[in-house]
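Q: Convert this sequence to structure tokens.
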Amino acid sequence: QVQLVESGGGLVQAGGSLRLSCAASGRTSSGRAMAWFRRAPEKEREFVSAINWPGSTYYANSVKGRFTISRDNAKTTVYLQMNNLKPEDTAIYYCAAGDGPYYPTPFRSWGQGTQVTVSS
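A:
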């Protein structure tokens, strides 16, 4: 079982930036692709970004060029740098750990989520 704890959410004005962090722990936290998803009010959960274990990255079209996913050298923490935030980025952001090292892979371990609110 992988434990995931997100942090870094908050309230920001449109055009501002936030950096989300996801700390992974547990005996099997290594060797997995990691991803960020989000759920806006009254909408389905959607994919935001993923990073493979070797380091290649993927982004939803809606955030490409504004968001950057990365991992620390120990590969125990995943970050999501969010720049030029828009009101439509308002959502609860969830970190997820994949079953395997490469995206796409099933994501069955989830964090509790962190709220991001962007005011216009």
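The chain is about 0% helix and 50% strand.
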